[in-house]
């Protein structure tokens, strides 16, 4: 078989997927194609992948290329984890940081892309995710031409918008994959519940899912959460900026919506939790979450440091084959443990029938009542050789979740697609006119003018005929 990882210069994630493939005997003897336009990162990923698999003693073949068509040709599965950005920049976060700074200059705290129910600015870029959408379409077109039976596993954000676009305008096989649902296990651990005795479901849209079914030993377990809130919520402190599952924001949303938001969902609440850093600290704890002017830049620098270290490590491995990755960096390079990502279970299930329950982003098809059938939802499914089988959502999501959270979030997705497909700058203007931070139409035009005048946005500006 052939697996293609696009954006393999995201070395840490690539090593997780490669490790999962190597630890799955069904896939031994397969080829993994690493694709990235950034030569140094691609080379580092290639060197470390070969060394990792060599230490595992597994037969896998590797190829590397900067060309989509070469990487995709003949693939069975294509994993898109790419964050497209201009070669002249150190990374994609440079342009995000610049655009955020310009947005704040014009009165848009955390930038124009921080929108209610979509507060993480790196989910979309200049409101329509142009570069991510363009790459996804390029990948889809290459799949149709060079690997028409392949599955695309859309992993890079914005998963919701990209998966929706591809199901609307292409006929390739695509699912969106995210690990945010793992927040349920933080809930179970916090409440001291044995996971094997918990029956659970989550449903919603990507980064907007709620715990609709929560049973412990056959009984409704929400009363256990209520008790924890009464006794321990006031003493809760986050362990790090990402530790938000049991935060006051998450529990406040639970009280309003009637079901607990899971994973990144509480990061994508309303302005109530996000007006400024002081507000964020009140709701997310002492760090103020990860989506603020202090912690986000720190995170970007951590990613840069980690990438530099990976490249250095690859250079060291190239010079000395005596280096043992399994001993040097066991949290990434390990012998037995799977990464926890769902990709390997989907690929193994759909190919060999190893049936697995997964949380995937797929067309609704009547699964969540009141949501259009073609809208991409994130729901529990079972995967086997016959395909994807939906679970019945029971109990249904509350009416408040649908009318106050899901439908407004779906509307924002539709705005993104309309802006991208219409190529009309007026769509971007109308999105910003509706932003509560906007005080005048002149403010809208000025912020968009300055952002689109940046050198790295020349292509976007041309695309919008601006």
Automatic annotation (TrEMBL):
<dbReference type="Pfam" id="PF02056">
    <property type="entry name" value="Glyco_hydro_4"/>
</dbReference>
<keyword id="KW-0408">Iron</keyword>
<dbReference type="InterPro" id="IPR001088">
    <property type="entry name" value="Glyco_hydro_4"/>
</dbReference>
<dbReference type="InterPro" id="IPR036291">
    <property type="entry name" value="NAD(P)-bd_dom_sf"/>
</dbReference>
<keyword id="KW-0533">Nickel</keyword>
<dbReference type="GO" id="GO:0016616">
    <property type="term" value="F:oxidoreductase activity, acting on the CH-OH group of donors, NAD or NADP as acceptor"/>
</dbReference>
<feature type="binding site">
    <location>
        <position position="207"/>
    </location>
    <ligand>
        <name>Mn(2+)</name>
    </ligand>
</feature>
<dbReference type="GO" id="GO:0005975">
    <property type="term" value="P:carbohydrate metabolic process"/>
</dbReference>
<keyword id="KW-0378">Hydrolase</keyword>
<dbReference type="InterPro" id="IPR015955">
    <property type="entry name" value="Lactate_DH/Glyco_Ohase_4_C"/>
</dbReference>
<feature type="binding site">
    <location>
        <position position="157"/>
    </location>
    <ligand>
        <name>substrate</name>
    </ligand>
</feature>
<dbReference type="InterPro" id="IPR022616">
    <property type="entry name" value="Glyco_hydro_4_C"/>
</dbReference>
<keyword id="KW-0170">Cobalt</keyword>
<keyword id="KW-0520">NAD</keyword>
<dbReference type="GO" id="GO:0046872">
    <property type="term" value="F:metal ion binding"/>
</dbReference>
<keyword id="KW-0464">Manganese</keyword>
<dbReference type="GO" id="GO:0004553">
    <property type="term" value="F:hydrolase activity, hydrolyzing O-glycosyl compounds"/>
</dbReference>
<keyword id="KW-0326">Glycosidase</keyword>
<dbReference type="InterPro" id="IPR019802">
    <property type="entry name" value="GlycHydrolase_4_CS"/>
</dbReference>
<dbReference type="InterPro" id="IPR053715">
    <property type="entry name" value="GH4_Enzyme_sf"/>
</dbReference>
<comment type="similarity">
    <text>Belongs to the glycosyl hydrolase 4 family.</text>
</comment>
<feature type="site" description="Increases basicity of active site Tyr">
    <location>
        <position position="116"/>
    </location>
</feature>
<feature type="binding site">
    <location>
        <position position="178"/>
    </location>
    <ligand>
        <name>Mn(2+)</name>
    </ligand>
</feature>
<feature type="domain" description="Glycosyl hydrolase family 4 C-terminal">
    <location>
        <begin position="202"/>
        <end position="438"/>
    </location>
</feature>
<dbReference type="Pfam" id="PF11975">
    <property type="entry name" value="Glyco_hydro_4C"/>
</dbReference>
<keyword id="KW-0119">Carbohydrate metabolism</keyword>
<dbReference type="InterPro" id="IPR053487">
    <property type="entry name" value="Alpha-glycosidase"/>
</dbReference>
<protein>
    <submittedName>
        <fullName>Alpha-glucosidase/alpha-galactosidase</fullName>
    </submittedName>
</protein>
<keyword id="KW-0479">Metal-binding</keyword>
